[in-house]
Amino acid sequence: MAYSETIDLQPQQALSGRTRTVIARRLADIVCLPSSRIGPQERWIVGDLLHEILKYSEPGLRRRVAARLADIADAPSGLVRSLAIDTFEVAEPLLERSQTLTDFDLLEIIKAGNLEHRIAIAKRDRVSEVVTATLISGGEYNVIMALLKNHGAHVAPPTIDHLVAAASEEATFVPLLLKRPELRPRAAMRLFWSARHAERFQILERFGVDRTLMIEAVDDVFAMAAQEADPDPLVVRALVFVDRRQRDREAMARSPFGTLENVFDKMARDGATPELLDAASQIASISRPLLARMFDDPGGEALAVLVKATGADRVYLSQLWRALGRSESLPAFGEAVIVHDSLSVERAQTILRYWDWANLGKGLRRG
Predict the structure, then answer these.
(1) pLDDT (tens digit per residue) in 203-224
(2) Which InterPro entries does the entry link to (predicted)?
(3) Residue 340 domain flag
(4) Can you say whether the dihedral through the CA atoms of 49, 51, 52, 58 is positive or negative?
(5) What Å distances lie between residue 294 and 41, 221, 263, CA to CA?
(6) Same domain, 144 and 38
């Protein structure tokens, strides 16, 4: 950087005077000349002089110079940086518009500035992934909201993951995250659990895709994997996700309850006991932790996905709702019915498989 010394953000004695104002304006006139009128070396030298004069000048003069420099693409970088880390009244136009500020400059300002500085940086026309990650790591609500609303801010996948986790405590992040182009299926499926009904419905509609192409592409691989004495676990995990059938026939044959519907019927009478949850998990071919989370969830959308994906009739959604001791007059039950009726079996299976696949794989099922 051109200067290691910056203007102190703390109040200090500001010197004023007509001659100081005049020379500052004249030097600023030179600094702001187009490249056809002034060379870079001369511009930097004038910038050094102007920086020295502005160091202890009153904020109004510094603000006027900063506003002029904000739209100069090749303004002296050190001068711009020193003004951008000044009090927010001075720094605001540079933080909002200056293209001279580098990511390194912005990271320094994030560290040394105050909340207003960080919000202004979050609203810039373009914010890089590195700067966005640094801003979000501070956990400041207003900064995060400004970034999420700014489609000129680029958000890296790890930062999206961080925000999805934060959304479990701050629900206002959810609708903004859903508008982000960087949101991918894995993060969206995690975001589901922090969302309200309308947002959950949007996630299911957007990410509950058909797996026909995948199924057709690997159909012969099931037989190949089944013939291997020691199948590749990564291949097995992928095939589990693609498999057409949701229910495990071998688990049904072993279970004292026989069918998944029988398990649901008994749940309606006895409640969701550990024994019945284990049986439903095995027959529905999903992990026990996922099934427990679906039953613990205050909404009914996840249970609707389970019923639809396993091919059970809609009446079994009512059975599961009663198993939880909940009244069907609750709005959440009506919302669950809407989800059940809107999803195809294939899309519901994709969602259920993705929830499970994103956490752990299970054994190969085919035949």
Answers:
(1) 999 988 877 787 778 888 878 8
(2) DUF2336
(3) yes
(4) positive
(5) 66, 31, 16
(6) no
